[in-house]
């Protein structure tokens, strides 16, 4: 089986898939789609992903898998070890809920096409656009913090003592806070869990600035 992952160093949705692949020990060749240069809109990539977003996962000659959380679910079903969801339905619902606070609520509001629209169509100047990016990034992190600080299922990680989908999404959202200069001192639980995640090689190696397509000026 050959796997090809279309992604981009800075993409947080790609980060989720990169971490899950690494945790599961699955090899995928990553192809960089430069979102900052608009390569997602080129005809070649549009043929892979008509929504013009990364990630897309190609497995052999089947149709591309799209949407990072769907790809995580696919990896969980096909490579059950190590599990990235708890065994019990209630625990699974909690983990998916935490993950989707990021993947369905926070992250979609800060992606390049939204930033471009705010600037081009809505005529927001840069400070106003940055306020938008910071606001929605912070909102998702604050919601995570409240859940994690108050629910007894929280352990070393978001749910117990092993990483799950929720930790993968949390870690990406903390990188978003870094991109947009969002203050994280009021989120001690989120940051404690982020630090735990980054002790794991799969999370660390997948991080944006450690990707071969990240600009050398930022990585050195
Ligand atoms: N919900 C999608 C989000 C995909 C997405 O928006 N990806 C961003 C990068 S993180 C992208 O490719 N954006 C291109 C654009 O907005 O033009 C997923 O989780 O896969």
Task: Note down, in words, how this protein is organized.
With 220 residues, the protein is of the alpha+beta class. The model has no long low-confidence stretch (mean pLDDT 97). The protein has helices at 12-24, 43-48, 68-78, 89-106, 112-120, 126-150, 165-179, 188-198, 201-205, 216-219; strands spanning 3-7, 29-32, 56-59, 65-66. The longest helix is centred in the middle third of the chain and has 25 residues, at 126-150. A four-stranded mixed beta sheet has the order 2-1-3-4, with helices on one face. It is globular and about 45 Å long. The protein has two domains: 3-82, Glutaredoxin (3-Layer(aba) Sandwich), CATH 3.40.30; 89-205, Glutathione S-transferase Yfyf (Class Pi), Chain A, domain 2. α1 (12-24) packs parallel to α3 (68-78) and α4 (89-106) runs antiparallel to α6 (126-150). 53% of the residues lie in helices and 7% in strands. Glutathione (GSH) binds at residues 11-13, 35, 40, 52-55, 67-69, 103, 111-113. Glutathione (GSH) is lined by residues 11-13, 35, 40, 52-55, 67-69, 103, 111-113.
């Amino acid at each position: 089986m050959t796997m090809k992952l279309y992604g981009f160093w800075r993409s947080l949705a790609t980060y989720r898939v990169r971490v899950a692949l690494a945790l599961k020990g699955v090899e995928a060749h990553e192809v960089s789609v430069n979102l900052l240069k608009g390569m997602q809109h080129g005809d070649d990539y549009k043929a892979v992903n008509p929504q013009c977003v990364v990630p897309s996962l190609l497995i052999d000659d089947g149709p591309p898998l799209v949407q990072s959380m769907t790809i995580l679910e696919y990896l969980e079903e096909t490579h059950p070890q190590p599990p990235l969801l708890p065994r019990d339905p209630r625990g699974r619902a909690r983990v998916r809920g935490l993950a989707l606070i990021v993947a369905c609520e926070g992250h979609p509001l800060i992606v390049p096409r939204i930033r471009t629209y705010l600037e081009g169509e809505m005529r927001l100047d840069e400070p106003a656009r940055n306020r938008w990016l910071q606001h929605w990034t912070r909102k998702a992190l604050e919601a995570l913090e409240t859940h994690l600080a108050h629910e007894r299922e929280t352990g070393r990680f978001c749910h117990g003592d092993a990483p799950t989908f929720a930790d993968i999404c949390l870690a990406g959202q903390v990188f978003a806070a870094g991109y947009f200069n969002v203050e994280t001192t009021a989120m001690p639980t989120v940051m404690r869990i982020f630090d735990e995640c980054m002790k794991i090689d799969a999370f660390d190696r997948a991080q944006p600035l450690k990707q071969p397509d990240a600009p050398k000026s930022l990585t050195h």
